[in-house]
Every structure is written in C-alpha cells, then in structure tokens.
From TrEMBL:
Residues 13-48 are annotated as: Disordered. It comes from Drosophila busckii (Fruit fly). Residues 33-47 have a biased composition (Low complexity). It comes from the Eukaryota. One of its GO terms (biological process) is regulation of translation. Residues 16-30 have a biased composition (Basic and acidic residues). Signal peptide: none annotated. This is eIF-4F 25 kDa subunit. Keywords: Initiation factor, Protein biosynthesis, RNA-binding, Translation regulation. PROSITE patterns: IF4E.
C-alpha cells in the first residue's frame, strides 16, 4: 500500500561541518580525510540538494512520488431536477502520491455524504458512466455493504482507492475506476473493468480484490454493464460470484 510521508525542508550549510578550534592542533590523517570525503560524496548523492541565493546553502527538496496513471475524482449529489450526467461533478485530477493524500484529507469521507451521493475515481479521460467508450464493453466487481460502521465503510473505500492507484492487482490495463454508492438500504462499492469478456483478467482481479480486502465468501459479484443497463438492482444477473 502507499504509505508515503512527505519530507520536511532541511537547510544544510556547506560550512556547517565542525571546524577545529584554533587552539588545537588536530588534523585528520590521510586515511581519515579520504573516508570523510567519501562520506560527504555519498551523502550528497543520496540527498536531493539545490544551491540557492548564492549563500553556499543547500536545500533538501522533498520529492514527490509519481503514480502510474493520472486519476480523476468525481462527485455525484442526487438532484431530481437534473439529468444523471449533469449531477456528475469532476472535482480534480492527480498523478502523485502526495497529491492523492492531500485531496483525500481535505474531502468528506463517504460516511459523511448525503444519501444518494456517489464518489467515483477513474483514470483520467474516463467518465464514470456505462456509456463511456472505455466502459461500455466492460463490467464491475460489486461489493454489497449491508451492515457496517462508518469507520469500516470509509476504510473499505480507502483500501479500494489504494489498490487502484497503487496498481496492486494484475491486468491493471483492465482497471477503469471505482464507485461508491451511498444509499438508504445498503451501500455498494464497485470496481470497473474494461472488458467483461476477458475472463482470465476478470477472475484474477476478483480473486486479488477479495484477498486484499479480506472479504467473506459470496460477497463479491461481477456484473456486465450491458446487463446493468437493462435491469436494476438485485435483478442484475451476476456473471461470477466469489
């Protein structure tokens, strides 16, 4: 999982090495001097340093960690006066680990959203709808959440997000995104894949999801989008059950 902490800025002075006192007559012998120089070189190679302000000061820059793909967060708030497409709001996109955590820590967790709302996280340029070109031939692994605390719900959604952006499953090219639906009777989390007829990829993704999320048996169902479009809710036939 992605558990990266940002480094704090550290100022390093090139003259900050301890100087020998003028009253002392201590010198490094050749071997110690060579070891000292090697240590400095290794330290400089390991640390990202930049010369600034002409003051012979070096600044340690905090590195960001790139993700394999750029991801976009969507938010849907139920409004019967609008079409389903108009209810979808594109929030922002990110492609760095640190930017993901910054976003996640500044939005409401799913448990605090209004009933009827959705969060969706999809690869950039893929919209969270069945009709999108990247989705229309695919399907989704659906996790039905009947009884669960707010903390458990939020943790499960976060775990799904980390699996996606961390490329924790095989056949990552098949992964399109994930959706959490907040409803009055039960909540759902679904992981969308691109090709519902790629049986090998679908099943390997499903087994990995069940293992990583610690799901009980028979709580993960794969539904084809074409079936979901023609039927609703429990009437949708599952292609696979794990």
């Amino acid at each position: 999982m992605l558990l990266v902490k940002q480094n704090s800025f550290t100022m390093l002075d090139s003259d900050s090495e301890a100087h020998t006192d003028s009253s002392q007559d201590l010198k490094l012998d050749n071997n110690k001097q060579q070891q000292h120089q090697q240590h400095q070189q290794q330290h400089q190679q390991q640390q990202p340093l930049q010369l600034v302000s002409g003051n012979n000061q070096l600044v340690e820059l905090p590195l960001k960690h790139p993700l394999e793909h750029t991801w976009t967060l969507w938010y849907l708030e139920n409004d019967r006066s609008k079409s389903w497409e108009d209810m979808q709001n594109e929030i922002t996109s990110f492609d760095m680990v640190e930017d993901f955590w910054s976003l996640y820590n500044h939005i409401k967790p799913p448990s605090e959203l209004k009933i009827g709302s959705d969060y969706s996280l999809f690869k950039k340029d893929i919209q969270p709808m069945w009709e999108d070109e990247a989705n229309k031939h695919g399907g989704r692994w659906v996790i039905s959440i009947q009884r669960c605390s707010k903390l458990e719900l939020d943790k499960l959604w976060l775990d799904v997000l980390l699996i996606l952006i961390g490329e924790a499953v095989q056949h990552t090219e098949e992964i399109c995104g994930a959706v959490i639906n907040l409803r009055s009777k039960s909540n759902k989390i679904s992981i969308w894949t691109a090709n519902g007829h790629n049986d090998v990829a679908v099943m390997e993704i499903g087994h990995k999801l069940r293992k990583l999320l610690g799901l009980p048996p028979h709580n993960l169902q794969y539904q084809l989008h074409k079936d979901s479009m023609s039927k609703q809710g429990s009437l949708v036939k599952a292609a696979y059950i794990l």
